[in-house]
Task: inverse folding
């Protein structure tokens, strides 16, 4: 299996702390995550810490939403690291991060995912990267709207 990295970024007119608060609290993901509206009956279980290091989020939904879990594995003033485990529609284990860098006009936010390319991702190739990339772009646009409101 080959390694992959996917990243998208945007500038948000808000302080890093405001943006980080929307990322390191999984309860807040309902306001901006691009996947939250894939299944109106999505089952969510929050465990571990309320927010930040050790916070955990498990989901189970329809075919579009799939099933998996996320856990915040690191939080600094400029980065939130997340372990992402997919169970369905295919198994995969990835690392995600949100990097927050102050710039003129606000904060540059980079959403990055790395991992091993599964057989399914290899077969679908660039199509998979485009689809996930579009989800990241949609999520960053929603995160921007939430942080700037």
Result:
């Amino acid at each position: 299996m080959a390694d992959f990295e996917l990243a998208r970024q945007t500038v948000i007119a808000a302080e890093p702390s405001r943006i980080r608060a929307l990322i390191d609290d999984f309860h807040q993901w309902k306001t901006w995550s691009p996947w939250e509206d894939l299944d109106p009956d999505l089952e969510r279980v929050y465990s571990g810490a309320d927010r930040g290091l050790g916070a955990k989020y498990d989901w189970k939904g329809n075919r579009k939403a799939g099933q998996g879990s996320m856990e915040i594995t690191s939080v600094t003033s400029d980065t939130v690291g997340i372990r992402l485990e997919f169970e369905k529609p295919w198994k995969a284990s990835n690392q995600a991060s949100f990097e927050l860098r102050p710039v003129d006009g606000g904060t540059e936010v980079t959403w990055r995912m790395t991992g091993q390319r599964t057989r399914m991702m290899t077969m679908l190739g660039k199509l998979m990267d485009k689809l996930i990339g579009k989800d990241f772009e949609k999520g960053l646009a929603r995160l921007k709207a939430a942080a700037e409101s």
Remarks:
- The mean pLDDT is 91.
- The beta strands are 3-12, 43-48, 55-60, 67-75, 79-88, 92-103, 106-116.
- The CA atoms of residues 7 and 112 lie 4 Å apart.
- The two ends are 42 Å apart (CA to CA).
